[in-house]
Design brief:
Blueprint lengths: L2 H15 L11 H18 L7 H10 L2
């Protein structure tokens, strides 16, 4: 079953039960990605690592720049 089919089924069931319809697929993707990045920065800060530029710094060390 595809995401679209599941969404249509969930929408149908919600209407049958009088519940609010679920958000469309992809509606909150950017928000979820931002929250993931925030969580990674938070975890890095807890462990004492620099919160930003870790990948760029690691690549610079590997490439000798």
């Amino acid at each position: 079953m595809s995401i679209t089919q599941q969404y249509l089924l969930d929408t149908y069931r919600a209407r049958q039960h009088g519940d609010p319809t679920p958000p469309a697929p992809g509606t909150h993707d950017w928000q979820a990605m931002r929250e993931l990045a925030d969580h990674r920065r938070f975890r890095a800060a807890l462990t004492g690592r620099p919160a930003r530029g870790r990948i760029r710094a690691a690549l610079a060390r590997l490439l000798g720049h």
